[in-house]
Design a protein that fits this description.
Length: 339
């Protein structure tokens, strides 16, 4: 049943995304908050047959596969007041015209950071015991781990973890790491507030001072022109022998060639959920190194975790319909420093 008097809403995303994120329960909740004429969902707003539907829409619920809201498309939605994104970054969707019209944008990036932080925390724990590398090393397995020390000390006690970027994910990782005994969390981020970092359990530290002190380097910076290749040959060379590099952010933040050299030498280990390029070329040496674990971008929301992002967008819709301020607004200024 569609709610009478609610804002007129429309879901715009790929068929695959819609099927994964909107089950019967969430469709019913959407209809209870907003007016939702047919069709409830579309993939291609450029279809001329949708002109009347677009003319009345006030709120878009967007997701993966949604197009950029450029001047031409916005001209077909004169009543549009809000875009509530059921996923992370809205960077690819917004345009100068979008901001000029003063349309509200929100994102589910905060809740999407939860599984990424969980994955990162698990990676750091596994890195402490060198478990992925020993498991991939046939000789170590056959000898019941008797050669495991080739990857460094096996321990999660008294470790020093370095995080580059006090982002949504970075904050959560610092919090999760407090479960470890005698852990030290160093955070490098030129935009972070030292008091906020300290309150989370970390210590704000310059990158060049952080690198030689840590057992694990975990990257959580946004992908911006200024951050591409920020962890290059010099930064990797500054790490301790047998340190592990964990990347669940963006592959471009790390110089792939430099990482290949360090890992091939056996000096560094790596756990990579993202790479540059993605995927790596079939002949990349990283695939065959036992001290490198590569996963195909699994850390973000997948499976049932996707519903958490839909729920966050529907929470924002509920607040919008009630005239309340959004919980996770995105602005033209904030997007410049975010992923």
């Amino acid at each position: 049943m569609t709610r009478e008097g609610g804002p007129e809403a429309l879901v715009v995303m790929s068929r695959e995304a819609f099927d994964a994120q909107f089950d019967a329960t969430r469709i019913a909740r959407l209809r209870s908050i907003a007016a939702v004429p047919d069709p409830l969902w579309i993939a291609d707003p450029a279809d001329p047959a949708l002109a009347d539907r677009l003319a009345g829409v006030e709120v878009l619920l967007t997701g993966w596969g949604a197009p950029q809201l450029d001047a031409e498309l916005l001209s077909r939605m004169p009543r549009l007041r809000a875009m509530l994104h059921c996923a992370g970054s809205v960077r690819a969707l917004v345009s100068p015209e979008f901001w000029e019209r003063g349309i509200l944008a929100t994102s589910a990036a905060e809740v999407n950071s939860a599984p990424v932080a969980e994955f990162t925390f698990a990676a750091i724990i596994m890195a402490g015991k060198k478990a992925p590398f020993i498991a991939a090393d046939r000789a170590s397995r056959r000898l019941h781990g008797l050669t495991a020390d080739r990857y460094g000390e096996l321990s999660n006690f008294g470790r020093t973890i370095g995080l580059v970027g006090f982002s949504r994910v970075g904050r959560r990782v610092v919090d999760l790491l407090q479960q470890l005994d005698d852990v030290t969390c160093l955070v490098a981020d030129p935009f972070a507030d030292p008091e906020q970092v300290a309150a989370a359990g970390g210590a704000l530290t310059a990158l060049d001072e952080l690198l030689p002190r840590i057992d694990v380097l975990s990257v959580h910076a946004p992908e911006l022109p200024s951050t591409r290749g920020m962890i290059g040959a010099g930064q990797l060379a500054a790490l301790r022998d047998h340190a592990t590099v964990v990347n669940t952010a963006r592959g471009s933040l790390i110089d792939t060639s430099a990482l290949e050299r360090e890992c091939a030498s056996g000096r560094l280990n790596a756990i990579l959920d993202v790479t540059d390029p993605e995927p790596l070329p079939a002949d990349s040496p990283l695939y065959d190194l036992p001290n490198v674990m590569i996963t195909p971008h699994l850390a973000g929301s997948l499976g049932s975790e996707l519903f958490r992002m839909t729920d966050a967008a529907l929470d924002e819709l509920e607040r919008f319909a009630a005239g309340l301020a959004p919980r996770e607004p995105v602005t033209a200024d904030s997007i410049r420093l975010s992923a």
